[in-house]
Amino acid sequence: MSIRLNNKLVLMLAILLVSVTTQASEYSPPGLYDVESITLDNGLDVIMKPREGAHTFSIRLWVGLGMQDYPCEQQETPHFLEHLLFTGTSKHTEAELEHMVADHGGSWNAATSDENTVYEMDIYSKHAEFAVNILHEILTDSTISEENVETSRDIIHRESGGKPSKIRQWFRLSGFGVNGTEKAALQLLPGIDYVCEGYVTAEGITRDDILQAYNTYYVPGNMALIVVGDFDPDTMIGYINNTFGAIPESTIPDRNLPVPGKATSYEPTTGTMSPLLSDDAAIGILYRLPGYWSDDHFTIMLIEQYLQFRLSEVIRIERGLSYAPGAWRFATSKFGLFSVFADVNLDDIDKTMSLTKSEIQKLVDEPMDEELLEKSKMKILLQNVQGYESNAAFANYYVTQYAIFRERRVFENVEDSFEALTSEDVSRVANEYFTEDKGVVFYETPTLTFTQFYILLIIIVLAVVVVVIRFYLHARSRLITGKKE
Fold it and tell me: 30: cis peptide before it, omega within 30°?
């Protein structure tokens, strides 16, 4: 539950903050789901989690802006803006800001993902007010100058491996250097710019583009502030209200995040000159999933855990066909992807793929063994217990789950959701998403093995030598003939 606070009454009403509580299970870190949630008068969401013990303070600023808000040509805009907010304000240079944070024993960073941008700071709890103030300063007073734009552009290029040349970009647009996984994703997610045909760069993005993004998305109603640690709630509300609460209310953007169309094909894919040189291959199967709003989200997570173990056991431990087989999943609000994969020798591709398909088919055809089901659950539950010990870990959890909290006003009890899963749930989800006709098999096989490359190199060198010798002999013959005449 949340309440809107009038700025003038915020300090007086702070003691009336409503706690959002979800009953914890024995595997939940104590108090993980018990947070105090308020919405300031300007629309900014504030989530507070006081935790005594460790004298640390963690603050996260969530902004509803990510790469999927833009087409391929502009997808670096949110990332670009994120960088620019660290390049200095009217009060402090970038170097001064860095020194101030370090001098207070803090560390800060930011990250841009598909659907949001997050700014973070972790610091000694006695400097909590400083953390709030400095984060507010870079948010509201950063100097987004043309000079800083160009400097940040170069940094973004270096982060992505350098600015792609026109020739390199042409090769990419022509399909060269595109791996099998990307091609599979293009088949499964048509109509959206999740995988771009060309390299995504910051080259065509202007200062005006960045300022427009800032003015559109960096508004209180599209942001949330999350604070966790050793602090007094009443005092913290005062800090926040005097800074973030003073930001004027503005129109909340209508975010029309892209929804992929129906899959265009399920034909196997291979990379094109990707990789170019290797003695090994990577193989796998890619499946399309619903977004994280789906009721099947937790079942899919359990299947990921199960396959991660089974593929390692069957392919690596029992047969030694792969060093690191496994599974991964990814989800946005609108869609998700799930992959099983393995690195293999070229001679073992067919055998490994057959074993991989067999393990997935078992989930489709047979109810999961109850013992394996419980073991898979327990692994996830015990990992959760270990994963949320620090204030920073709590803050990171809240920020990753905030999009769902924003709608439901409660953090869902992950442990209870896992404990409630049954083998019938697994069978239903496996039949819904993981049948053989719904996955795209991909192969990342090298264009040349190193042996082939060396043989080719030797042939080229020998050919050059032959050409040079023939040219030399021809020139020498002409010289001798000339002397005789």
Answer: no
Parallel, antiparallel or unpaired: strands 45-50 and 223-229: parallel
Encode 333-400 in three state secondary structure.
CCCEEEEEEEEEEHHHHHHHHHHHHHHHHHHHHCCCCHHHHHHHHHHHHHHHHHHCCCHHHHHHHHHH
Q: What is the pLDDT of residues 392-445, one digit of tens each?
A: 999 999 999 999 999 989 888 888 888 899 999 999 999 999 999 999 999 999
Percent above pLDDT 70 for the chain = 94
Answer yes or no: do 202 and 282 share one domain.
no
Q: 0.85 exceeded by the pTM?
A: yes
Distance CA 442, CA 361 (A): 17
Residues 262, 42 contacting (CB under 8 angstroms): no
State the CATH number of the domain containing residue 330.
Answer: 3.30.830.10
**Residue 155 to residue 1: CA distance in whole angstroms:** 42
Q: What are 456's two structure tokens?
A: 């080719």
* Residue 379 resides in a domain: yes
